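Q: Okay, next protein. This is Helix-turn-helix transcriptional regulator from Cohnella fermenti. I've checked the sequence twice, so it should be correct. Can you predict the 3D structure?
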Amino acid sequence: MPNPWSIRPVAYIFWNRKKQFLLDHDTDASWTMFAVESGQFAYRIGEREGEAGFGDIVVCPPGIAFHRRTITPLSFHFIKFDWEEQPSPEEAELRSGRWTIKDADRLLSTYRYLKEIGSGIRQEPGHGRMKHMVEDLWRQLEMERSRAASEADSEAGEPDPDMQEARRWLQEHAFEPFAMRELSDALGISPVQLTRRFRAAYRSTPSDFTTGLRLGRACRLLEETSLPLDRIAQQCGYENGFYLSRVFTSKLGMTPSAHRKLHRV
């Protein structure tokens, strides 16, 4: 799986103390993000609704009406973007709605850089810098959400039997092609429920857990054998060496060949 947080910036505007929105709702062809720096607003995205203030980031998928209403004058970063790798419907559902970042110092630093970069994101170096800062926002969100899941898991004790079974199933099937729907159907739950419950139990999505198992085996085969990349890919559950190379480089920050060279004397 390619880097799940890799995005393509489309547009950026910083609105300072906006008293009201021109439209009470809008639908966009790209993902949209409202990152609040000060003030409050009410929102509704599908069945999700609530209020957002400083530290909150509200994300709306494409093709869904984003209803919003200012409560107090609102300063916020409006960002339009697309994912480099289209998320599954289940993962898209998890990425939408309101997210909250508690590390205020880190968040304000990111906001400062976003304003410095400004709207000049259609050419370099602005495009690359904006991409980096928006992806950094997503990583902050994921880190804090994972930490919260970890704390909840510590309080809750052992994962429930269904998730323990899901983990065993993934370990047994990780090195062969399969569809995640097979697992959710076997457990009698929806793919969205599987993703949410597995993330809460193990601080990882089923897809990321599987990728970790596959890359672990790929690393061992690169280090301990002279097998060509296509053969290694087949033994790790990937279709071919090209796709394994993409996943490996995205997740581990180096190519398979560089990893093999690093571990050869």
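A: Here is a summary of the prediction. The CA atoms of residues 104 and 175 lie 41 Å apart. The chain has a mean pLDDT of 86.
Q: Noted. On to the next one.
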